[in-house]
Amino acid sequence: MKTTLPIGNVFLLPDARYNWQHVYSGGPEVNGRQIPCPRGKLFGGCTSVNGTVYMRGHPTDYDEWAVLGNEGWGYQDVLAHYKRHENYAGHASDFHGSGGELDVGKPRENNRLAHALIEAAVEGGHQRNDDFNGAQQHGFGILTSTSVAASG
């Protein structure tokens, strides 16, 4: 099965035909809570169910791989490859490239509900994050996507 409408991913997630429906089972630290971990079970794998979100791994994960002996897998090493691959709809920076084959950027539409949620989180003491592929990945903000046409 192949999907063609990114926004339709919300309809794929609950369906076992399209999602492996893995679940993390927490210990006493999270009161035994179970956390869904959607994984694509169709052509394109997770890309088909993730809504075209573009988010890199956490820098410490890459650095740990390098420490474990995987030369060339440190964050600064892989960041150079990410930047070459990107055509960021914005300005090239220490964290983003331009001219690559993958168009990435913020959604064009301004979703008032999403912005209200972010503002509520900030008012509640959480950090705002305008770029989850930038200096840090913690906080609340609008995610970068691969379903935008980049310019620049």
Features:
single chain; 152 residues; alpha+beta; 2 domains; two-stranded antiparallel ribbon; 4 strands; 9% strand
List the helices and strands and how they pair.
Blueprint: H1 9-12, E1 22-25, E2 34-37, H2 59-67, H3 75-85, E3 86-88, E4 102-104, H4 112-123
Parallel strand pairs: 3-4
Antiparallel strand pairs: 1-2
Write up what this structure looks like.
With 152 residues, the chain is of the alpha+beta class. The protein folds into 2 domains: 1-51, no CATH class; 53-152, no CATH class. The chain is 24% helix and 9% strand. It is built from 4 helices and 4 strands; from the N terminus they run αββααββα. It has helices at residues 9-12, 59-67, 75-85, 112-123, and strands at residues 22-25, 34-37, 86-88, 102-104. Strands 1-2 form a two-stranded antiparallel sheet. Strand 1 (22-25) and strand 2 form a beta hairpin. 10% of the residues are buried.
Short description:
With 152 residues, the protein is of the alpha+beta class.
The shape is globular
Please count the beta strands (DSSP E, at least 2 residues each): 4
Overall mean pLDDT score? 86
How are the strands ordered across the major sheet?
1-2
Distance between the termini: 35 Å
Kindly provide the radius of gyration, computed on alpha-carbon positions and rounded to a whole number of angstroms: 17 Å
Number of helices: 4
β-strand percent reads: 5-15%
List low-pLDDT spans: none
Please tell me the total number of domains: 2
Largest sheet: 2 strands, antiparallel
- Based on secondary structure, the structural category is alpha+beta
Helix content: 10-25%
Order of helices and strands: HEEHHEEH
